[in-house]
C-alpha cells in the first residue's frame, strides 16, 4: 500500500497463525482489555473482516470451542468471586 507515493507502514500488536484457537486470541489480546475495563478504562473489542471469515465463531465460539465473549464473562465471574 502506498500513500502519496510512499509505502505505508502498519504495526500490529499481535498476529496469530491458522493454528491459533479462540483461547489463544483471548489470552493474547482480549484478557488485557477485560482487566483494563475493571480498572475504569473504556475498552472495545472489534471483530472486522470479510464475510464468512470467522468473526462470529471467534466471538461466540461453537459447541466444541468457547468464544471470546464467554471466556471474558468467565474471567469476570472468576475475578468477582475472588
TrEMBL record:
Gene Ontology cellular component terms for the protein in this record: cytoskeleton
Main localisation: cytoplasm
Chain sites annotated for binding ATP: 49-56
Pfam families in the record: Kinesin (PF00225)
PROSITE patterns: KINESIN_MOTOR_2
Kinesin motor domain segment(s): 1-82
GO biological process: microtubule-based movement
Gene3D superfamilies: Kinesin motor domain
InterPro entries: Kinesin-like_fam, Kinesin_motor_dom, Kinesin_motor_dom_sf, P-loop_NTPase
A GO MF label: ATP binding
Compartment annotation: Cytoplasm, Cytoskeleton
Signal peptide boundaries: none
Record keywords, A-Z: ATP-binding, Coiled coil, Cytoplasm, Cytoskeleton, Motor protein, Nucleotide-binding
PANTHER family: CENTROMERE PROTEIN E, CENTROMERE-ASSOCIATED PROTEIN E
Family the entry assigns: Belongs to the TRAFAC class myosin-kinesin ATPase superfamily. Kinesin family.
Name the UniProt record assigns to this protein: Kinesin motor domain-containing protein
Organism: Adineta steineri
Amino acid at each position: 500500500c502506498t500513500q502519496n507515493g510512499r509505502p505505508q507502514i502498519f504495526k500490529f500488536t499481535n498476529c496469530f497463525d491458522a493454528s491459533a484457537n479462540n483461547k489463544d486470541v483471548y489470552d493474547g489480546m482480549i484478557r488485557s482489555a477485560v482487566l483494563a475495563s475493571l480498572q475504569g478504562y473504556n475498552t472495545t473489542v472489534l471483530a472486522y473482516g470479510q464475510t464468512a471469515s470467522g468473526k462470529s465463531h471467534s466471538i461466540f465460539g461453537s459447541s466444541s470451542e468457547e468464544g471470546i465473549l464467554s471466556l471474558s464473562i468467565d474471567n469476570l465471574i472468576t475475578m468477582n468471586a475472588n
